[in-house]
Structures are given as C-alpha cells and as structure tokens.
Specification:
Keywords: Membrane, Transmembrane, Transmembrane helix. The chain has 4 helices and 9 strands, in the order ααββββββββαβα. It has about 180 residues and is of the alpha/beta class.
Length: about 180
C-alpha cells in the first residue's frame, strides 16, 4: 500500500512538471519531467515474475494432509489446469488458513507434481511458500504429462521447516589466530 502512494505522488509530480513545461515552454522543466519516471520505476510492483495462488479463487484449494502421527506432513495445492502461469519465475502459496485433512480425493485426471526441497523458499515465521516454477518445468520434461495438465502440487511440510535459517554458531577463532587441520 505504501508503494502505491509513492507511485501516485511521483505521477502527480511528473504531471505537474510536464504541464508546466508545456505552459511555460521551458525545455528545462521538460528535462526534469523526463527524469522523474526513473525514480518511479523502482517502486512499481514486479508483475511478471511472481504469481500468488489464493484459496477459493479460480478453483484453488490448499489443505494440509496429516500423516500417521496426526501432524500435518504434506501441503496439497489443487487447482484447475491453466491456473498456474508456468512462464513466471515463482509461485507463492499461503497456507496459514489451510484446513488439516486425513485424505484428499482424487479422480482419473489428477496430474500431481511433487515439489522438492530445492524448489522451495520460505521465510522464518511465515506460512507462505515460494516455489520455483522453472525448476518444476524442467523436471516435468520426462513425465507422461505436460505442465499445462498439472492440477495438483504436493509439498512436504517438513522441508519448509528445514529451510528456515539455523542458529549460526559463534566464531571459533579470532582474526589473529590461525587454525590447522
């Protein structure tokens, strides 16, 4: 929301300089107006690289599948084929409100793809998963279906917990001390 106000303010300043350059016939004001978009561009959202899947939009459902221990072990994301834009860089899925279930129904046309550990990126204390779509697209080449037929992603929840940065141990040696192996 903060970026939207900065973009709108930048567009307002650009418009003011542009209109005043026309009214005063000043090339200096026109040069200033032409530089302002350079400062606006970093605040624009990056629309082409990320896609967010939201529950209950476009037939998307996100559930946590419980294992034998009763704890959620898998995140199952079901969607209609064509919902995911496979030419994007990453897919962001929020699972904070995902219900836990014991089993997930399947049909004859389920094309599921398992997301591996190196395909995932998470932030600490965040219930969102970022999946690298180019990695999934490369891995699906040898399978009997294409990326446009995939309608389910299976994400192991244990991998999302492991990706959080671990506690870094304190330095063992100082600068002046050399260690030998």
């Amino acid at each position: 929301m903060k970026n939207i106000w900065l973009v709108l303010f930048g567009l307002l300043v650009f418009g003011a300089f542009f209109i005043s350059s026309i009214l005063r016939e000043s090339p200096l004001l026109l040069y200033i107006a032409s530089v302002i978009p350079i400062f606006i561009v970093p605040f624009l959202p990056d629309l082409r690289t990320n896609q967010r899947l939201r529950q209950k939009r476009g037939g998307v459902s996100v559930v946590k599948l419980s294992g034998n221990s009763g704890k959620p072990e898998w995140l199952i994301v079901t969607f209609k084929p064509g919902t995911v834009y496979w030419n994007r860089k990453s897919l962001i899925i929020s699972y904070e409100h995902a219900p836990s279930v014991e089993s997930v129904p399947t049909d004859d046309y389920t094309a599921a793809l398992t997301v591996l550990k190196y395909d995932l990126r998470t932030r600490k204390n965040s219930e969102r998963v970022r999946i690298s779509l180019p990695n999934l697209s490369e891995r699906i080449v040898g399978m009997p279906f294409t990326v446009h037929e995939v309608n389910r992603l299976i994400i192991p929840l244990g991998d999302t917990v492991e990706l959080e940065p671990a506690n870094v141990p304190a330095a063992v040696a100082s600068r002046g001390i050399e260690l030998q192996a």
